[in-house]
Amino acid sequence: THSYTKYNSWDKIQSWIASVSSSNPNLISRQVIGNTYEGRPMNVLKLGKKSSSTKPAIFLDCGIHAREWISTAFCQWFVKEALSTYGSDSQMTSLLDQMDVFVLPVFNIDGYDYTHKSNRMWRKTRSRRSGSSCIGADPNRNFDAGWCSLGASSNPCSDTFCGYTPESEIEVKNVAEFIRRNKSIMKAYITIHSYSQLLLFPYSYTYELAADHSELLKVAEGASAALRSLYGTRYTSGPGAATIYPAAGGSDDWAYDLGVKYSYTFELRDTGRYGFLLPESQIKPTCEETMLAVKYIAAYVQKNL
Ligand code: 0X9
Ligand code: ZN
Ligand code: ZN
Question: What's the average pLDDT block by block, 10 residues per block, for the chain (305 residues)?
Fold first, then answer.
């Protein structure tokens, strides 16, 4: 059975998606944005008070990389907290009254399922192409943002394989199409990864600073301070290229260049002791502190609509 403090299998997450999305029709609905390579439906949950007019929105995704299980746990936590604190937490209430939050609980479902059944350290998608026996591409190298120019590999066997063309991975195409279709309402893009305790923003495909660099940095530092206030967990903020490494084709850079100004990549706990194998006992504290950072960004976006 599904638990917010465990790493749930895809099957459990899938039935959770069905039940949570029918639990409160005034606050949550779901839509399928396409299927994965292996045919699994990609559900996006829309959180927000039902309204007759179209609301500005935030897009949040988890599980771009298969082995980063704490990421996937966070999206489930976010949905739970949104539903359970709407009406009592003034910030969540005001956020969901004014905006919609689109949550993609697992971006790379095929890969995630594979990490549960075969190889815990799998990162990429599970797509195949004739001519190579190697499987999958790195979804966070497959977006159309300086594609495959830097920090990505054109070798299909590499863990950072950029794919055969931008958006060659159907999961990337489905998300990109959804965000393009909803471009006029998308005010923020937040993507959750692990690990290293970083809050990154564009760019990663170049060392050049983004036009909105100082504002993005200011908001990231505010969000990191909010996160740290709970348990003292320290995060470093900065542009991807200079803060972690240069790497082209990422979703954050792509969303930013599309016009979604507040574009952030979280790298959750820890700093390497457990790495991708973060114990389940850390799910709750990690998610609770991360909520504060995500809510900080959301509040800033809301205030500046
Ligand atoms: O390399 C990545 O895709 C991310 N780190 S991870 O360890 N989770 O794989 C960092 C992504 C930063 N943003 C871009 N490179 N665009
Ligand atoms: Zn990642
Ligand atoms: Zn809570």
Answer: 98 98 96 98 98 96 99 99 98 98 99 99 98 98 98 98 98 99 98 99 98 98 98 98 98 99 99 98 99 98 98
pTM of the full predicted structure? 0.99
Question: Which among 72, 264, 267, 268 is the best mutation to test ligand 1's pocket, defined by most ligand atoms within 8 Å of the CB?
Answer: 267
Per-domain boundaries in the chain: 10-303
CATH superfamily to which 10-303 belongs:
Zn peptidases (3.40.630.10)
Is the CB of 244 inside a 6 Å radius of any atom of ligand 1?
yes
Whether this model's ipTM surpasses 0.90 comes out as yes
Q: Could you tell me if 284 and 228 are in contact, meaning their C-beta atoms sit under 8 angstroms apart?
A: no
Ligand 1 centre from 68 Cα, in Å?
Answer: 11
Angle at 36 between CA 123 and CA 268, to 5 degrees: 35
For the Cβ of 204 lying below 6 angstroms from any atom of ligand 1, the answer is: yes
Residues annotated as part of the active site: 267
Residue 123 near ligand 1, beta carbon < 6 Å: no
